[in-house]
Sequence to fold (287 residues):
Amino acid sequence: MPCRDCHTYITKIPHDPVTEEVNCSNECHIKPPFSKENFSHKKIIKIYNKSVHGIKKNDSEELKAAKPYCKYCHLNPIYTRVEEGRINFEVTLKRCLNCHERKGVTQAYKHITHRLRHKTSRSPQQIVQLCSKNCHANIPLMEKLKVSKESHEAVETYNESIHGKAVALGSQEAADCVSCHATSAIHDIYKKDEKESTVNKDNLIKTCNQCHKNVNDRFVQIDVHSGIERHEKPLLYYAKIILGYVFYGSVFSLIGLAMLESYGRRKDGIAMQIRKGTSWHGKSRRK
Fold:
């Protein structure tokens, strides 16, 4: 790809110092395999500009500076192979090469298999970190931008939810930020009150149905970002505290019981050693 495909304003070589950012919507000279048009990000950028992340005319300078740009999320390499266990890349590609030339079709195949992985090539853990790190978990920034209380606490309440806890424990199937807040276009994230939003009340059944079966109106009333505050939901607040005490009380009681039993056995002369599938050997001195 020649430099001027992206830096279109350069008219001479050697060129003057670079003063303009690259416009990712520029049309390239590259014609992707199986496409009649030259490559461009124009369609995606149009979707992005309409989204909540796109810069609007009425945005303050602080808000414009805070919004994510293309390179904030997109890093090289562009193409990422799926796990070999899911699709045997080399074997399957050889079948394509029986008819197609390697040039072009190899790159197209990599890109297609890359897109077969859920919505993005990133893991749920990476997506949550990407959305949280410098933006939604940045409390001073969120306060400065005067976001709603719900948005202000979005990361905290997500991490406390069943989805957030499953992702934190390593799940690759649990819903991350993009799972609920965007379609397969990825960039179409809107405020929940907008009709295009995937989390708009009229679209929730379709959104939840991506993972859950038999979704109905009652199911979608469950608040995914629910904060359990004492003054707002006293019953849930105290139930959470009681269940916490019960859980940790059970765990520490079992640990204490195991330690007490171990002490009693050692006192009776039974030695601990791993042999023949058990850790205790010897006869008790107790009569």
